[in-house]
Each structure stands twice: as structure tokens, then as C-alpha cells.
């Protein structure tokens, strides 16, 4: 695939991830104890031999661009090929904010046209999976296809959340519906597409103005005018586009037999390294079924949890079924249950996060926080003795004066006066 360009669509706003995406693009969300979501797609590219990569950004791209840098962790800091971050730009009549996935590619078509790529691989930057993209090329070569769509089988009840495909016996796609209320098929599109150069530019040129999405507009056009086949993926894949899905996917990593293997030396997940000391477990520390990053200091109890680098857990503190991101400090005698703490959060002594039997939805994130998770935004400081019940949320950079009391009921939201 040396003449293949991978276009990673990484401009997602991620509203369904609530406070986790308020200040970062969705592909930049931390995951799995040391990674960002985009690491999995970038690693799939280089592990598949795709070394020409363009990352299309839009919403709050700073942390994502800083994470990618010049692409060194993925062996993409090279003179032939390599990685390039493409931002929205002005200066031409057809330049504007991206209106959809296809529009993002359309506005960057000159970047593609000026190079001799024979195939275009379009990917999402916010899914968890390990896929060898050469399998799509194999289907294309075997079938003489102009485009290949990666698909997987889903329960029929879940198919309403996906674009669903109708297949001929030979695997050719003969029908496509985007999020149908009554699906005709259990074959769902993964949002992964391989195009020949000719089919890619033909679709961008022929689809009428205003039709801006690959799933809704580009693929249906290609099915009618070109040979489009499917590649059926039968391994682990997760769309972590909601708070619950994000939490569940992290918790799957700490089970006794994780469904996704982070330790496969033949298919490594790459990410920027850091200069940190090893994790340290002090006398009295108890750790069961947990991922613990480098530089952590554990004095309390951690079980069924994902702990990112540089976290300190004070004595007498229990972290249970929770995610604690980089640099958080948990004081002594705290209790966390089903909590997500974003980076650099400080939890005062004796705080309780996640308690009670009341599951009323969050006042601010009414659709995102409904299952009992407690979510604390980055760089917040929680005052000592604070109690947060189920579905409570604290905005990024909240400080003790922002809290109306020391006991917040289920569904409460604490805004930050810091202007975030």
C-alpha cells in the first residue's frame, strides 16, 4: 500500500462525550491508561504499511496536533510519505468550515490531487480496533472493485445506529441505508473506506452541492455508478462516542481476559513516550485488575480501574470501577466509584464520588450522563469532604468557591467561574 494515502477524519466535536470533549477534539481523548483515541487508527496505518497520512482536524485541534507532532512515535517523521495535519482554511470561494466527512475531503482535494496516490483510504480517528488495511486492498484486487467498505455484523436492534448495507452473494454492495428505523440488514458500515483514485475524485465531483457525508451521499452514489464491495471485519471494534461506551471500553481492558489485546508485539499500539519513573506501590497499597501508568504513587486501594501516568492515590482511598487520567491527585480517605476524572484534577481529603441510589440525569448533560457515572472536568480542585452523587458533573477548572455546598445531589452540575 505504498501509494495509498490515508485520510483520518479527526475533526469531531464529540458532544456525546460531554465534558471530556469540551476542550479537546474527540480523537484526542485519553484512553486505556496511556493512549489517545487517534493512536489506534495511526497504529493500524503504519502496521498495515500505510506511511502517507493526512489528519483532517477542525474542532479544538491544539492538543491533537501537539500529540501527533511530526509523527515520530508512528515512524511517520520521514521525507517520503509521513504525516500532515490539515486544518480548515480560507482564501478560496469553496473554503469554509467542514460541513461533513465528504466535505472535509472535498475541501482538501488539491492536497490529494497534487500527489501520485493510486488509492485513498478514509478512516475515522476515534474508534478502538486493530485492523490490517491490506485486507481491503485484497478485496479490491480480487473483485476488481472501485471501492471497498469495511463492515461488521451487529445485533439487528443496534443496526439503527449505523449505516446498513445490503449485499449480493459475492459481497458486492447493492443497497445502503443510513441509520434506518427498520434495518433490512445486520451488516453495518464501520466508516472505513478504500477508493481507487478515479472513484474517489469522481464521487467528489459528481455528488451535488450540499451532500457532505460519506455514509449518506458518497457511498450511495458509488453503489449506483461503480463496483463497491465489502470487507467483513470479525474482530474487536468499539465506537466510544458516548460517555457510557467510553467507560465500558476502558473497563473491558481490565477484565481477566480482555477482548482487546494491548500487548500484541506483532501489532503494537504506538503513542508518544514520556520520561517518567516507574509506578510505585507503597506499603498497604492494594491493586486488583487495574492498568496503572508510569510515575504513579499508590498508597490506597485500586480495583477494576484505569489509572493514567503520574496519578497519586492517598492512603485510605479506594478507587473502584473508575478512570483517573494523567496527573490527578487523590487525597487520603476518598472513595471513587464509577467516576471519570480528567487530567490534573485534585480531589481533597475525604471526598466521595459516586454514591446513592438516585439516578436522575445530569442537569446540564441530560442525554450524556444517565447511568450513574460521575464526571469531573480537567484541572478541577474538589474541596475536602465533598460528596458527589450519581450522574453529577464538575466542569473543567472548577475551584472550591464554585461549589454550592459539600453535598451535591444526583444529576448536579457545577460550572466553573474560570471562564472555561
Short description:
With 420 residues, the chain is an alpha/beta fold. 17% of the residues lie in helices and 27% in strands.
Structural class: alpha/beta
Mean pLDDT: 91
The top-level CATH class of the largest domain is Alpha Beta
**CATH architectural type of the largest domain:** Alpha-Beta Complex
CATH topology of the largest domain: Spore Coat Polysaccharide Biosynthesis Protein SpsA, Chain A
CATH level 4 superfamily of the largest domain: Spore Coat Polysaccharide Biosynthesis Protein SpsA, Chain A
Instruction: Kindly state the percentage of residues in helix.
Output: 10-25%
From the N-terminal CA to the C-terminal CA, the straight-line distance is 43 Å
Major sheet size, sense and barrel closure: 12 strands, parallel
Output the number of helix runs.
Answer: 8
Please indicate the percent range of residues in DSSP E strands (runs of 2 or more).
25-35%
Label the overall shape.
elongated
Total discrete domains: 2
Give Rg in angstroms: 23 Å
- The low-pLDDT segments are none
Number of strands: 31
Per-chain topology:
Elements: E1 4-9, E2 30-31, E3 35-36, H1 38-47, E4 52-56, H2 62-68, E5 82-86, H3 101-107, H4 109-113, E6 119-124, E7 127-129, H5 134-143, E8 147-153, E9 163-167, E10 173-178, E11 187-196, H6 197-206, H7 214-225, E12 228-232, E13 237-239, H8 243-252, E14 280-281, E15 286-292, E16 297-298, E17 301-307, E18 312-313, E19 318-320, E20 323-324, E21 329-330, E22 335-337, E23 339-341, E24 346-347, E25 352-353, E26 374-376, E27 381-382, E28 387-388, E29 393-394, E30 407-408, E31 413-414
Parallel strand pairs: 1-4, 1-6, 4-5, 8-12, 14-16, 15-17, 16-18, 17-19, 17-20, 18-21, 19-22, 20-23, 21-24, 22-25, 23-26, 24-27, 25-28, 26-29, 28-30, 29-31
Antiparallel strand pairs: 2-3, 6-11, 7-13, 8-11, 9-10
Helix pairs in contact: 6-7
